[in-house]
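User: I'm curious whether this sequence folds into something compact or stays loose and floppy. Could you predict its structure so I can see for myself?
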Amino acid sequence: MIAEYERAKILERSRRGRRHAARLGSVSALTGAPFGYRYVSRAQGGGVARFEVAEDEAHIVRLVFSWIGSDRLSLREVCRRLHHMGCRTRRGSTYWYASTIRGMLDNPAIWGAPLSGEPTLWCLGPAYDRSGGA
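Assistant: Here's the prediction. I'll summarize afterward.
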């Protein structure tokens, strides 16, 4: 019974600590940099670990968000376009999976939620009417 209480206290304190670090803009060493960013370690960053924008990857992220948000393309069509453009994944492949694109879209770090500690809601405009009617 005491062990359960201690476990709950440790979990609550670590959650609170991670939330506090996120609000301060600290980066956890246990997370990988999302696509479009690169991790700068504490030693390289002058005592502060952080994510920096990787412009070559960030360009791809901007294209993906534009194609899906503005042009309303499917995930598979985005994959096809990236493949035909010769864009490489982080591991060097030119083949993109729809699940990779979906993970990119679902990752809150791409739109800055972990930095503020608060979720952000995005409005992409009116929904696409699949029926063709008005």
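Summary: The first helix runs from residue 2 to 24. The two ends are 61 Å apart (CA to CA).
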